[in-house]
Design brief:
The protein has about 450 residues and is α+β, with helices and mostly antiparallel strands. The chain is about 40% helix and about 20% strand. It contains nine helices and 18 strands. Bound molecules: zinc ion. Pfam families: Cas12f1-like_TNB (PF07282), HTH_OrfB_IS605 (PF12323), OrfB_IS605 (PF01385).
């Protein structure tokens, strides 16, 4: 990830998903979450359509707005207790029917129309995730735009020093100001028109890989129970949360919300204030994922992480030693969900920034095996935070001990080779020493 000062972490400038604050600096390089939680680099350019092209672009905007508003209307009719409002797949089927029926809709781009539905689905997900307000009607002339996906390599080209061109379906080649490099792998782009009538195009591309240091060093990263992530180097990383004063404010607002009358203005204001705080926390976490993944990709040749698919199944075993009270457990369950989402994003970003250098490790027994003597015993897990080997007395931070086991597994050393109380041998991955030679 390029870490220019203009880089910040914000949500997608989605189709007025709730009323988003206008943080879009002109032609800033940003990291966005687009679609379903995917993180990609986005850079924005000034689009310079001809008169005729502008008319065609406005038509795309109109179609996107029409489809979006249809989705809003469908969901407005939905009420608790009724059959669920149609989801994205169902709406796509309905769109196909509508296109068969109406020539003017059929005349437009199906990508534009489908993406409007996708944006709406994302806006609803954000709403249910309580980070955004409920998506509302879009009016002509206000934050208009549409998205094009499945962009082919030749669809963006440079024609002179300061001029580029992008091929837009049903519009053709439209010029834009080539004010800085466009990423190599443009996956999708979004065309927007602001209230002043200016057009922009924002390209979304996969981030450029971070070069490996070439030191041969392997790091193990454990998705901690006590911390967000622990490294085999002993570092403990914590994803940021709300600060003390903000937490207090959030609690106060939540109490206020419980008292506020349904449908009142006050309730709306309180809800908006809560959404703002939660969005701030989400932004901080995204930023943390960016910095952490870039840092790891830059410092280590091989980054070993637990395989989430296997990890989710065995996670309960990992926490079983603690046997906390019921309330603690419930809360842990909630946090786990949030942490799991953040972890998934961290691994995804690592794989993008360090392609071929991320190894996913079967996490079974990594938390119960002593890194010093390899003895495997559930009883060694003293507490959530402390590992105390029952065989050799080795003491360590539990998550760091696990991270070291993750690292050693990646480096080809057996974990949980002996000991154990009737537990089956863990299935270790094939050693991949050749990975250590790269870079
Ligand atoms: Zn030991």
């Amino acid at each position: 990830m390029r870490t220019s000062p203009s880089t910040c972490s914000v949500d997608a400038p989605s189709f007025r998903a709730g009323r988003k604050r206008e943080t879009v600096a002109d032609e800033g390089l940003r990291v966005l979450s687009v679609g379903f939680g995917r993180l990609i680099d986005v850079s924005r350019f000034r689009l310079q359509p001809t008169r005729a092209q502008e008319a065609a672009l406005l038509e795309h905007c109109g179609h996107a707005r029409y489809v979006w508003n249809l989705a809003v209307e469908q969901h407005a009719h939905w009420q608790p207790g009724r059959k669920t409002a149609p989801g994205f797949a169902e709406q796509c089927r309905q769109l196909t029917q509508a296109r068969a029926e109406f020539a003017w809709l059929r005349g437009g781009s199906i990508i534009v129309q489908q993406q409007a539905l996708k944006d709406f689905a994302q806006a609803m997900a954000n709403f249910f995730g309580k980070t955004h307000r409920k998506p509302t009607w879009r009016k002509r002339g206000q934050g208009e735009g549409f998205r094009i996906v499945a962009v082919k390599p030749g669809d963006v080209r440079r024609v002179s020093r300061n001029v580029g061109e992008v091929r837009i379906p049903k519009v053709g080649w439209v010029r834009f100001r080539w004010s800085r490099p466009v990423g190599d792998e443009v996956r999708s782009y979004r065309v927007t028109r602001d209230r002043a009538g200016r057009w922009h195009v924002a390209f979304a591309a996969l981030p450029e890989p971070v070069p490996a240091p070439g030191s041969g060093e392997v790091v193990g990263v454990d998705r901690g129970v006590a911390v967000s992530a622990a490294l085999s180097t002993g570092e403990l990383l914590n994803a940021p949360t709300l600060r003390g004063a903000e937490k207090t404010r959030l609690l106060r607002l939540q109490r206020k919300l419980a008292r506020a009358k349904r449908g009142s203005n006050r309730r709306g204001r309180v809800k908006a204030a809560i959404a703002k705080l939660k969005a701030r926390e989400a932004d901080r976490r995204k930023d943390w994922v960016e910095k952490t993944s870039t840092g790891l990709a830059r410092r280590f040749d091989v980054i070993a992480v637990e395989d989430l698919k296997i990890g989710n199944m065995t996670r309960s075993a990992k926490g079983a030693v603690e046997a906390p009270g019921r309330n603690v457990r419930q809360k842990a369950g909630l946090n786990r969900g949030i942490l799991a989402a953040g972890w998934g994003r961290l691994v995804e970003r690592l794989e993008q920034k360090a392609p071929g250098r991320v190894q996913k490790i079967d996490p079974r027994y990594t938390s119960q095996t002593c890194n010093a003597c390899k003895h495997l015993a559930r009883q060694s897990r003293e507490s959530q935070a402390l590992f105390l080997c029952v065989a050799c007395g080795h003491r360590a931070h539990a998550d760091v001990n696990a991270a070291k086991n993750v690292r050693d597994t990646a480096a080809g050393h057996a974990v949980a080779a002996r000991g154990g109380f009737g537990l089956p041998e863990p299935v270790n991955r094939e050693p991949q020493r050749d990975l250590l030679l790269m870079g």
